[in-house]
Amino acid sequence: MLGGMSASTIRAAVLERPGAEPRIEELTLDAPRDGEVLVRMAASGVCHSDLHVRDGEWDRPGPIVMGHEGAGYVVALGPRVDPAATGLDVGRLVALSWLVPCGECRSCLAGRVWECPGSPSYSHRMPDGTTRLRRPGSGDEVLSYCAIGTMASSQVVPAAAAIPMPDGTPPEVAALIGCCVATGVGAVTKTLPVEPGASVAVIGLGGVGLSAVMGATLAGASRIVAVDRVAAKLDLARSVGATAGVLAGDDPAATAAAIRDATDGGPDVCVEAIGLPATVELAIACLPTGGSALLVGMTPLGQRASFEVFPFVDGARRIVGSNYGSAVPSVDFPRYAALHLEGRLPVDRLVTASIELDGLEAAFERMRRGEGVRSVIRFGDSGT
């Protein structure tokens, strides 16, 4: 730790309450405490989950610094952070995990950290229950989304959330590994591993859906059918491994028929990567006997989907939910980065716009219109 380190001033995107437009504010950031790390942010992805919070579809407390998909450089280690044990040292690029396991629940004890219901990340505070962010003058506390609040020029995070990246990893790639890549690639390689030669359909070609396409390619799927309403996204999906594309229309029965036609009767695995009841129902409707619907997209709270039970049971079909791609960040994040550096996981193709913090609201508007894949906020990427 840097001895005598004091509070600093940062710029951050602050959401006062769900449904409000985020404001770019100057905040006071306190020094890291026990088990914490100060990170100078280099990149933050703008994820659809951020839009859910921005638009009030997910109720989150405020004021809160937005963002949960980011990467940056270690500036200082708090007390009780051992570089030898963690691999963390000043200047190291880290990808940030939005889920810090509690280490005590039955899921954590069984090694299924992605299922942890008691993660301090869900309180948007440090593990000790406090926050390092304050508004200058008033001293009012500001929360940090998932305890990492990546839409800020610097941030203090739990050391367990900071995952060292291999040398040469681009910051924007590390940022996306921290959420959409881990979620999409992990869904088809870990949660419900796609078998070599299987057929896969992916509905929704945002960052998570395209990552699922890349993951299916890694898994050796024989047919990978990409489904979206935007033709340009079908072209992008083909460039990262899709073998066919289906341009979805307003008639779900026709879209389901097209998916079945492209997969010789239906995909072995159909990935839903949008988070809408209609596309969840579409994923189930296109399944053949023995097929599985892999639900990855997150709907607005309170929404439900339905399906006809008899043919679902009679056909031995399955529905599987995947959270965070069953990620163990300390193991999986460096592995995904290594695959990128080997040319086998083209994460950089997901980045369709580089923006500054002030461009956040415009990025949200593009997302609502279905334009592009990932806008990435850049803060500068040189090491410390």
Descriptive report:
With 384 residues, the protein is an alpha/beta fold. The chain has two domains: 8-179 and 326-378, Medium-chain alcohol dehydrogenases, catalytic domain (Quinone Oxidoreductase, Chain A, domain 1, Alpha-Beta Complex); 193-321, NAD(P)-binding Rossmann-like Domain (Rossmann fold, 3-Layer(aba) Sandwich). Helix content is 28%, strand content 23%. The chain has eleven helices and 18 strands. It has helices at residues 48-54, 83-86, 106-109, 171-191, 207-219, 231-239, 252-262, 277-285, 309-314, 329-341, 360-368, and strands at residues 8-15, 23-29, 36-45, 64-65, 70-77, 93-96, 133-134, 141-144, 154-158, 162-164, 199-203, 223-228, 244-247, 269-272, 292-295, 318-321, 351-355, 374-378. It is globular and about 65 Å long. The two termini are 14 Å apart.
Average pLDDT metric: 95
Give the overall shape.
Answer: globular
Taking the alpha carbons of the first and last residues, their distance comes to 14 Å
Task: Please count the beta strands (DSSP E, at least 2 residues each).
Answer: 18
Spans of at least 5 consecutive residues with low confidence: none
The helicity comes to 25-40%
Number of domains: 2
